[in-house]
Amino acid sequence: MGIIITILIGALAGFLAGKLMKGAGFGFLVNLLVGIVGGFIGGNVLSWIGIDWGGTIVGQIVTAVIGAVILLWVVSLLKKK
Known about the structure:
Order of helices and strands: HHH
Mean pLDDT: 86
Structural class: mainly alpha
Number of strands: 0
Strand content: under 5%
Low-confidence stretches: none
Number of domains: 1
Radius of gyration: 12 Å
Helix content: over 70%
């Protein structure tokens, strides 16, 4: 059951980050990848500044969205060069 929740959170986070950064999602697989990598990035960044959501689903989604937005922002910077 945990892997299903991870997939759903990753896909949702990638979709939301795509909406925030570009205005549209990227498709299920890319959203999933962006969301899962974003969860890793967001978890690390938020732990560096001392933020802990307590493991709630909403906290996991917010963390993954923050990380996915950071990921998409860095990718957009690299594409401009």
